[in-house]
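Figure 2 data, in text form.
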Amino acid sequence: MKMYLISDNIDTLTGMRLAGVEGVVVHEHDELKEALERTIADKEIGIILLTEKFGREFPEIIDDVKLHHKTPLIIEIPDRHGTGRRPDFITSYVNEAIGLKL
């Protein structure tokens, strides 16, 4: 199975290509939707990497794919500017999940 990147900037795509991951750069709602449909149709792709910006700006598209397709696995990655999450994201996630303060 292959990985495929859908990015909002060329720098992230360039870095992933150096690691052997192909992909595409998109910016608009319709471009993202079309890229996801093409990628899901390719049965050789097992993991779709998305930059976090898409998860923040177009959550309805990402959630729809996650709910209606078992494969491929969708993973949101930080782009070259770093993550958009708080520094204590993992700790607060665990606190909410198990109800204990770490």
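Caption note: The chain is about 45% helix and 20% strand.
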